[in-house]
Design goal:
alpha+beta
Amino acid sequence: MLATSALRFNNRKNGGIMNPPSPRFAIVIAGLCLCLAAAVYVARAQSPGTGQKEASMPLRATGTFEVKAIPQPPDPAMADSGISRLLLDKQFHGDLEASSKGQMLACGGPPADSGGYVGIERLTGTLAGRSGSFALQHSGTMDPGGVHLSVTVVPGSGTGRLAGIAGSMTILMESGKHSYSFDYTLPAAR
């Protein structure tokens, strides 16, 4: 009787008393717990090592790049929006030897020193002796106070020996020349 009374809860529907859970309910809960435990076990078994991610040291690559921005006709449905579309074609040199293809959307304000853009590009080449590809996502704005730019690796976009790459890139422009500083991590080589 003590076990049964411990399973009673307040419930207005049944005069303040809830009947103990049925055996079917207990079996369903036990089954869900077993499924969850099995899923955790499988996930850890498929991970390298003890189920923890391998630590990787932050690295930095630097160099220069050339870019061709090729204006494209606007989408007919967007013709009056003031949004420009451009194709990107880049060549990276230095610690990152790669070519990239991408697209950019841009919109400017009435003052010539204000605007914004978003872009995606896929780089294919060699970084620190490892070949493969990965994508970069750009988001930038410009106003009289300065330029604000974020360029980050798209999670999960790495291929080949660059699979698992993460990081962000700083783009610099001096005297009409582009350069980059790329802070990144890669899983340990196997």
